[in-house]
Write a sequence for this structure.
């Protein structure tokens, strides 16, 4: 029988001690109140994963400010004191079930498809993201062309991320994950065709990663050493799944080295397949490149619901934790099933229909 023991070794990320190395990946579920408050329904949803044996839960993307950051209607926020207070019951429930929880802070930028504060979007340049908005997140049609974000607005974004991180700290979260992946604002700065800037934030990979690195450093300084801080990074995007960094391994080195130098505790890589080479002309996975060049703890995500693949990625040292998205939706108690050699259930696709919101049957089962 395959040795799955690497999955169960305890691990420490920053100031957070985890019982195992299996995390819940962040997944947008658009189930907050209209004004962005977390609900008891959401608390029940997250508790179910905690009771299922996941050592770490990373929330869906939470918007950090009351300007351009919101990406979806009924997305939760943590921009205000009231929104922050609404998360306390989610955090307390997860902690009571024995797991730790990080808040993912997400600025949608040009990929916004629903914002109750403004009817416009911003991006690094006036270039629309490729592809179409997602219907199961209440979107329709192509993305509009965003306004090019100004230096003053960039400072407001930085300030918003810091306030949101402090709100997360007040709500009791163990850490924060900055969303720098999947086509959202910080990833838009990283992306060559979306970033046409001629200032210090455009051009070279070192310039394009600068904004994300500044936000990492801002949050690290603000929350202090007792809160874990990291960033999620990908090549592909929600509406452009085939995108790859044109500079290959050299670009990966520049990005991960810059992020690792900010004082953060982890990098969370997400790919379609975490075990596949990141580039055609190189053998390393994106997680392995992050591990090599950032020098920090690495969480890997991408089709790792096969426990043998997940355990091998850890055993070979390419990553320190694995995170499950759809695999977790299919089996809310995946760690318990693996530990006890039980069969997995199939993913119920109704979880995405007609909207990708939390359904009644997804809520915590009675004890």
């Amino acid at each position: 029988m395959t040795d799955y023991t690497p999955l169960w070794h305890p691990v420490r990320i920053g100031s957070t001690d985890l019982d195992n190395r299996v995390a819940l990946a962040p997944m947008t579920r658009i189930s907050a109140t209209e004004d962005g408050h977390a609900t008891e329904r959401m608390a029940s949803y997250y508790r179910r994963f905690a009771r299922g044996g996941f050592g770490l839960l990373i929330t869906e993307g939470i918007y950090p400010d009351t300007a351009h950051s919101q990406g979806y209607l009924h997305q939760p926020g943590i921009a205000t004191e009231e929104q922050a207070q609404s998360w306390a019951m989610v955090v307390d429930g997860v902690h009571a079930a024995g797991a730790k929880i990080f808040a993912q802070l997400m600025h949608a930028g040009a990929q916004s498809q629903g914002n109750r504060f403004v009817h416009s979007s911003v991006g690094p340049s006036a270039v629309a993201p490729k592809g179409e908005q997602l219907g199961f997140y209440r979107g329709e049609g192509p993305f509009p062309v965003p306004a090019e974000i100004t230096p003053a607005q960039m400072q407001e974004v930085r300030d918003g991320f810091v306030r949101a991180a402090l709100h997360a700290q007040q709500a009791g979260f163990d850490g924060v994950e900055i969303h720098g992946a999947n086509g959202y604002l910080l990833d838009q700065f990283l992306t060559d065709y979306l970033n046409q800037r001629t200032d210090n934030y455009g051009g070279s990979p070192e310039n394009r990663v600068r904004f994300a690195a500044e936000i990492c450093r801002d949050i690290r300084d603000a929350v202090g050493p007792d809160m874990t801080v990291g960033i999620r990074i990908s090549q592909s995007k929600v509406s452009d799944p085939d995108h790859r960094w044109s500079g290959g391994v050299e670009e990966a080195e520049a990005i991960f080295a810059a992020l690792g130098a900010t004082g953060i505790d982890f990098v969370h890589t997400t790919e379609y397949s975490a075990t596949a080479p990141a580039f055609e002309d190189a053998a390393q996975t994106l997680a392995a490149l992050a591990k090599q060049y950032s020098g920090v703890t690495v969480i890997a995500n991408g089709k790792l619901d096969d426990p043998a693949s997940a355990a091998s990625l850890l055993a070979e040292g390419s990553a320190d934790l694995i995170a499950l998205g759809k695999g977790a939706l299919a089996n809310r108690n995946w760690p318990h099933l693996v530990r006890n050699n039980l069969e997995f259930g199939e993913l119920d696709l109704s979880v995405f229909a007609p909207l990708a919101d939390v359904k009644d049957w997804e809520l915590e089962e009675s004890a």
Notes: Residues 5-362 form a domain with the TIM Barrel fold (CATH 3.20.20.70). DSSP finds eleven helices and twelve strands in the chain. The first helix runs from residue 40 to 51.
